[in-house]
From TrEMBL:
<dbReference type="Pfam" id="PF22964">
    <property type="entry name" value="ZER1-like_2nd"/>
</dbReference>
<dbReference type="InterPro" id="IPR032675">
    <property type="entry name" value="LRR_dom_sf"/>
</dbReference>
<feature type="domain" description="Protein zer-1 homolog-like C-terminal">
    <location>
        <begin position="408"/>
        <end position="762"/>
    </location>
</feature>
<comment type="similarity">
    <text>Belongs to the zyg-11 family.</text>
</comment>
<dbReference type="Pfam" id="PF25013">
    <property type="entry name" value="LRR_Zer-1"/>
</dbReference>
<keyword id="KW-0677">Repeat</keyword>
<dbReference type="InterPro" id="IPR051341">
    <property type="entry name" value="Zyg-11_UBL_adapter"/>
</dbReference>
<dbReference type="GO" id="GO:0031462">
    <property type="term" value="C:Cul2-RING ubiquitin ligase complex"/>
</dbReference>
<dbReference type="InterPro" id="IPR000225">
    <property type="entry name" value="Armadillo"/>
</dbReference>
<protein>
    <recommendedName>
        <fullName>Protein zer-1 homolog</fullName>
    </recommendedName>
</protein>
<keyword id="KW-0433">Leucine-rich repeat</keyword>
<dbReference type="InterPro" id="IPR016024">
    <property type="entry name" value="ARM-type_fold"/>
</dbReference>
<feature type="domain" description="Zer-1-like leucine-rich repeats region">
    <location>
        <begin position="201"/>
        <end position="341"/>
    </location>
</feature>
<dbReference type="InterPro" id="IPR055142">
    <property type="entry name" value="ZER1-like_C"/>
</dbReference>
<dbReference type="InterPro" id="IPR056845">
    <property type="entry name" value="LRR_Zer-1"/>
</dbReference>
<dbReference type="InterPro" id="IPR011989">
    <property type="entry name" value="ARM-like"/>
</dbReference>
<keyword id="KW-0833">Ubl conjugation pathway</keyword>
Length: 772
């Protein structure tokens, strides 16, 4: 049997790491002085495990809403005698200066800081602690780390007071920091370095660099790059304005294997890529295996004529290249970035992996290449993947899903990524692709969808996320996040005036989530405010005099959540539910589905003996009696009304204290209704009522038929129409025979018992199917 996409199990290391991080005080730590987190004295952790603990800790903070930051976590790794850190990847505002200071004694080899907006020059000075060991450093998007907070000048006059306040809040460049002494540093990423810094001076103490990323960095004098022309193997100049001087400098970097001179947008560049420049790059940089020229406008024709391009099957051989300059390559490139250029549309491209927008493969390559540090490009590529999944067919489903999931995790706070990513997930998880997806993969989708719902109250994100959840089997596939998803949906439904489409989808999901789950789940959701939220929606619709899907789904959800849950039934009564029931009946007398849902709910309330006295009023009993005659929705409304009254009748005549309507009159109407129903009619109702009354049947027979005829007849009718196989299995036919033998049995009851026994005869030869 072939495994489904993404079906590989989690490694034991991964499972143990997550468990330890979620249970630090029960595993490797204890509460020290002032309840501070302390590493147990007998714990010694090697580098591989320490690195994993910190990196997974950061991942959980970004992706698991239940995982809270642990105060003093980085302090656990302060002593290199018991813990050893070597390779860390930290991102975004969760990283503070004190976290770097806590691990200052570690001999870090790799430190990648990405978008760490809360790091200041304090953190920058801490980096010097790692200068003897650090080989790879990324400060991508960490521009604030090069600034110290503003301070007051040594002396100022009263006239300068206004200027002083501005000075105090104006950060200044930290002039004291230098890369002097970082002798082992080989890979450096300074992407997004502020223009106030002189990059040439900053990099001068690093003669041994082999990889440099200066994305979006201002390079007024690019010639300084030639100091690394004999060493630099990788140079990234994304969104750097190209000039003739810079191109001339690049052509001297003869050792380059990877060159990225791509741009986000063609319109923002004054530079035009020519065939001559591209040919010069290919000819001069003979060791190139990776080149990215995405986002550039080609000034003249770089491609072969269309008739020549169409000849033969697509080839990666340089001699057959549809792009003239690449015909001079000695071998195909490993990677070629052509995203947002016309060159990606040609047939013969001499590269194993190409980014572009021509087909699914190019688009997925683009998402993969640009997600980490170029969300603006990843967003566009995901949008193009969305079109493929929506209009065509996604042939690389596993890869597509994993890339979109990664993008949503990595850029949790990027609204454009969240909008396009959640839209793509809706189409990638629909019925067409479902059979190819594993449980684990679908759970990952649910996690990132809920993250999006949590982070953004914006209409488009909420709608996309809710629609995506509709692609899952509910409640089964959402049960592992049951509490969280219900809280999020109820939060969506809180505003009095919510977007109509989101409201409709959210109520539908709420209804599905409380259907066919155990009572503990229902009680927990009830305590979250589920009942009150649904009644508020109903109240709002009544004010608008509108009976739409939201109204019907809300009553249906209340029907489901009150099933065999007395606490929720009580909440319904306490929150003015009965008055809303009467108002809905009055306002919408012809809405059959609405009546069915409301009566089903009241049947659940009537099952709770302690609550039945609240239903025993002239107003309510009259309404229930009138609904016995209803022919709405087949027999559904009549049946459910009869069920409510049957429970009330079961308490006996002593509790019936009102003069009108008379108990006997209501019982006669119940019997007339039961007699009018067709046993063979198909019904779509909540059968817990029938089962509870059927149980009452057996109890009643054993106590010489103390049950009143209409409730007993309703119970027998329910058995006749639905439960014959179960009745046979449980020995119910013998009980029915006793009903016939008892002199106290009413003739109508005996007739119904005979009808049930006849039905049972028809089932005796059929296989037992208790699932019905």
């Amino acid at each position: 049997m072939a495994s489904k996409a993404g079906d590989d199990p989690e490694s034991l290391m991964s499972l143990c790491t997550v468990f330890c991080l979620k249970n630090l005080r029960r595993t490797m730590c204890y509460s020290g002085e002032h309840s501070r987190l302390q590493l147990r004295p007998d714990v010694f952790l090697p580098g591989e495990i320490c690195d994993r603990l910190v990196n997974v800790y950061m991942d959980l903070l970004h992706t698991d809403s239940d995982f809270e930051p642990q105060d003093g976590f980085f302090q656990l790794f302060s002593d290199p005698r018991s813990t050893r850190l070597t390779r860390l990847q930290l991102r975004e505002e969760l990283v503070l200066d004190r976290d770097l200071e806590a691990i200052a004694k570690q001999d870090l080899m790799e430190l990648h800081l990405t978008y760490c907006s809360r790091l200041t020059s304090r953190g920058l000075r801490t980096l010097c602690s790692f200068r003897h060991s650090l080989r790879s450093l990324s400060l991508f998007g960490c521009s604030d780390i090069f600034f110290r907070k503003g301070g007051a000048p040594l002396a100022y006059s009263e006239e300068d007071e206004e200027d002083l306040e501005e000075h105090l809040h104006r950060p200044s460049v930290d002039q004291d920091f230098s890369f002097q002494g970082f002798n082992r540093l080989r890979l450096l990423n300074l992407g997004g370095l502020p223009a106030e810094l002189d990059v040439e001076t900053l990099l001068r103490p690093l003669p041994a660099l082999t990889s440099l990323d200066l994305s979006a960095v201002h390079l007024p004098r690019p010639a300084f790059l030639t100091q690394w022309k004999e060493r630099l193997a990788s140079l990234v100049l994304y969104n750097v304005e190209l000039t003739e001087e810079l191109i001339h400098t690049l052509l001297q970097m003869s050792r380059l294997r990877h060159l990225d001179i791509s741009r986000e947008n063609q319109r923002t560049s004054k530079f035009k890529m020519t065939r001559k420049i591209l040919s010069s790059i290919v000819q001069s940089l003979v060791h190139l295996v990776s080149l990215d020229i995405s986002g550039h406008i080609m000034l003249d024709n770089c491609t072969v004529p269309a008739f020549e391009d169409a000849v033969g099957r697509p080839s990666i051989e340089p001699c057959k290249s549809s792009i003239y300059p690449f015909q001079e390559l000695k071998r195909p490139l490993q990677f070629l970035g052509l995203y947002n250029t016309t060159l990606c549309n040609v047939t013969h491209i001499p590269a194993y992996k190409v980014t572009g927008s021509k087909n699914e493969d190019q688009i997925l390559n683009a998402i993969e290449a640009y997600t980490e540090q170029r969300p603006e490009l990843a967003h566009r590529a995901i949008n193009q993947l969305f079109d493929i999944a929506r209009i065509q067919h996604c042939s690389q489903l596993l890869r597509a899903l994993q890339l979109v999931i990664t993008a949503l995790k990595t850029h949790k706070y990027d609204k454009s990524i969240q909008v396009t990513g959640s839209a793509a997930l809706f189409y990638l998880t629909n019925t067409e692709y479902r059979s190819d997806q594993s449980v684990r993969l679908r759970r990952q989708v649910i996690q990132v969808v809920l993250n999006g719902m949590e982070q953004y109250q914006e209409v488009t994100v909420q709608r996309n996320c809710c629609l995506t959840l509709c692609n899952f089997s509910i409640p089964e596939e959402l049960e592992f996040q049951y509490h969280r998803v219900n809280l999020l949906l109820l939060k969506i439904l809180e505003p009095a005036r919510q977007d109509e489409s989101i409201q409709r989808i959210a109520v539908h999901l709420c209804n599905a989530l409380v259907c066919q789950v155990d009572n503990d789940h229902k009680e927990a959701v009830g305590k979250m405010g589920f009942v009150k939220t649904m009644l508020n929606l109903i109240q709002k619709k009544l004010q608008d005099r509108m009976c739409d899907q939201v109204m019907e789904f809300s009553w249906s959800a209340l029907w489901n959540i009150t099933d065999e849950t007395p606490d929720n039934c009580q909440m319904f009564l306490e929150c003015n539910g009965m008055n809303l029931f009467l108002e809905c009946l009055k306002e919408f007398p012809d809405k059959q589905e609405l009546h069915r849902n409301m009566l089903g709910l009241l049947g659940n309330v009537a099952e709770v003996k302690a609550l039945r006295p609240q239903l025993l009023t002239k107003q309510f009993i009259t309404v229930f009696s009138e609904l016995l005659d209803s022919k709405a929705d087949g027999i559904e409304v009549s049946y459910n009304a009869c069920g409510v009254l049957a429970h009330i009748m079961f308490d006996g005549s002593d509790v019936w204290t009102m003069e009108e309507p008379k108990r006997s009159h209501v019982m006669d109407k119940m019997w007339a209704a039961i007699q009018s129903w067709d046993v063979s009619s198909r019904r779509n109702i909540n059968y817990s009522l029938s089962l509870s009354l059927s149980l009452s049947l057996s109890v009643s027979v054993s106590v010489s038929l103390s049950l009143s005829p209409p409730p007993l007849s309703l119970s027998l009718w329910s058995v006749a129409s639905k439960y014959c196989p179960l009745l046979i299995k449980e020995g119910g036919v013998i009980l029915l025979q006793k009903v016939l033998e008892l002199e106290s049995s009413h003739q109508e009851t005996k007739d119904m018992a005979r009808k049930v026994m006849e039905q049972c005869e028809n089932f005796k030869e059929d296989p037992m199917d208790t699932s019905r």
